Amino acid sequence: VVPVLGPDSQAAEDDGGARRRGIGLAVLAVALLALIGAAVALFLVFNSNDDETPPPTTTVEVPALDGLTEQEARTAIEAANLDVGEVTQAASDAADEGLVIEQSPSPQESVDEGAEVGFVLGSGPDVVAIPPVIGLTEAQARQTLENAGFQVLPSRQQPSLAAQGQVIDVVPAQESQVAPGTAVTLTVSTGVLAIPDVRNRPVEEAETILSEAGFTNVERNNVESDAPPGTVIEVSPAVGTEVAAGELITLAVAVPPPPPPTPTTTPTTSAPPTTTPPPTGTPLYASEPEHQRTSVIAKRRD
Predict the structure, then answer these.
(1) What is the side-by-side strand order in the sheet with 218-224?
(2) pLDDT at 262 over 90
(3) What is the tens place of the pLDDT at every residue in 145-159?
(4) What is the rounded distance in angstroms from the CA atom of residue 240 to the CA atom of residue 39?
(5) Residue 198 · residue 146 · CB < 8 Å
(6) Sequence-distant (≥ 6) Cβ neighbours of residue 217 within 8 angstroms
(7) pLDDT at 302
């Protein structure tokens, strides 16, 4: 026979079950806490070092490096008990060349003592060199410059004894450092050059002037003149004539005229004295002295 429980009996039984469940949960929680505590204890036992106590961590402030030279930046980092990290370079304004333009970590950031601080030095403007083009033809020079990223302006023609169409100058100068895309002007030879005026100069000086201008085929031609000896009195082709390299240039050089001939005198021989005979009918003694005439008369008397 199953006894029939009244409402009061049923409530009492429910309360007892709840208490038993609460006690069970409490026991379970205590056991779980005990296990956690044991695990922590074991961890501390196996990982503790009775001989060394880890030093407390010290933090320092990262110094500001912007605008410092590399050596100044290194000194500032080491003075803050930090280590120098990676040092690199990057393009910058001309005024920032060789100076710190970036750093990591940032200035005034707190980091552990001994942490690394890297920085970037400015390398100046991003520049390139004008390639060597003097001596090339205009077409070759243009191609070389355009391949290097430069803008080539219309060329200038200039009288020169270099081969016609050959580049004899470039602006900016070749090998100079300039920004990419800089405009470049070529100067190209016409292949001819006007003969400079070297008249009334000593011939040695005239030859030097012509040689420095590129004229190498020069000869002298002596010409009698009243000009100072050794002076250039004329140039052929004429002064100002445009000639090509290697064309002959003749310098007329003054030399004194020869002295006039010395007149020669023909020696004359003196003729022997002649005696004029006395006129016919004149007495023999007429032309004789008085004493001779007396002597002749005396002889005749005898």
Answers:
(1) 218-224, 249-255, 232-236
(2) no
(3) 999 999 999 999 999
(4) 110
(5) no
(6) 246, 247, 248, 249
(7) 46
For the chain, how many helices (H) and strands (E)? 5, 16
> In sequence order, what are the residues at sequence separation of 6 or more whose Cβ sits closer than 8 angstroms to the Cβ of residue 171?
184, 185, 187
In the chain, ranges of CATH 3.30.10.20 domains: 58-124, 128-190, 193-255
**Closest to 86 (Cα-Cα) out of 67, 100, 107:** 100
Q: 265: which 2 tokens? A: 């005198």
Give the tokens for residue 87: 């040092």
Q: How many C-beta atoms lie closer than 10 Å to residue 185's C-beta?
A: 13
* Alpha-carbon span 179 to 186, nearest angstrom: 18
Rounded to whole angstroms, how far apart are CA atoms 281 and 190? Answer: 110
- Domain 193-255: which CATH number of 3.30.1490.20, 3.30.10.20, 3.60.15.10, 3.40.50.1370: 3.30.10.20
Q: Alpha-carbon distance 55 to 212, whole Å?
A: 82
167 Cβ neighbours under 8 A, 6+ residues apart: 133, 134, 135, 136, 137, 138, 141, 186, 187, 188, 189
Length of the chain in terms of residues written: 302
pLDDT at 138 over 70: yes
Per-residue CA distances from 70 to 88, 90, 99, 207, 231 (Å): 10, 13, 7, 58, 67
**Cis omega before residue 263 (within 30°)?**
no
pLDDT for residue 123: 86
Q: What would you report as the CA-atom Rg of the chain, rounded to the nearest whole angstrom?
A: 64
> For residue 70, is pLDDT > 90?
yes
Residue 294 has pLDDT above 50, yes or no: no
Residue 230: strand pairing partners: none
**Using omega within 30 degrees of 0 as the cis cutoff, is the peptide bond preceding 257 cis?**
no
Q: Which fold has domain 58-124?
A: Trypsin Inhibitor V; Chain A (3.30.10)
